[in-house]
Hints:
The protein is an alpha+beta fold. It has helices spanning 2-18, 32-35, 54-61, 96-105, 155-170, and strands at 67-71, 75-79, 85-91, 109-115, 118-126, 129-136, 139-146. The chain has a seven-stranded antiparallel beta sheet, with helices on both faces. The longest helix is centred in the N-terminal third of the chain and has 17 residues, at 2-18. The radius of gyration is 23 Å and the shape is globular.
Amino acid sequence: MRSRAVAALIAAITCGLVGCSNTPDTEADPDPSETADQPVTEDLFVGECGSMDDTEVQRLTAVSDLTVVSENAIRCRWESASGAYAMFTWYRGSPIDRESSVAEAVGRIIERIDVDGHPGFTAAASGASCEAGVENGDGFVHWSVNYIVDGPRDSCDVVEDLARTTISKAK
C-alpha cells in the first residue's frame, strides 16, 4: 500500500514538472523553414588551418618563429618561443553574433568588418591581443593572435589579414 502511495506521489510530481494532459496537443508543429537558421553568407570550404602554412602565418604576424603545435580539421595553433601565438578555428553551425557578444561581455572592443561580402568583427583586448570572426554560411571562421607584449604590427590588423587570406583561399 505504501509503495503505491509513493508511486502516485512521484507520478504527480513528474506531471507537475513536465506537464500532463489527457487532451491532444492543439498547437501545430512549427514550420521548420521558420525556425531553422538560414546561412547569411555563402558557405565556403575552408582548408585545414584556414588554408595557411607556417610561412604565411609568420609573414602576416611578423613573428618569424611561429610554428604549428597542434592541428586538425577545425583548429590549428601556432606558437613562438617568445610566448606569442596565433590560432585558427572553424566554427560550423554556430552563430557569429554569439561569439561577438561573448567577446564584448568580457570587455573587448568590438569593431565590425567586412571580408569580401562576409560580415565579421574584430575584438581587441589590447594592442597585443585581438581576435577576428568572419561569417561563413551558418558558421564562421575565427583567428586570434596574442603577442604577449605589443607586437610588430597591430594585432587587429593581423587577425583581419589572416581572415581575409583564409576567405580568399576558400573561394
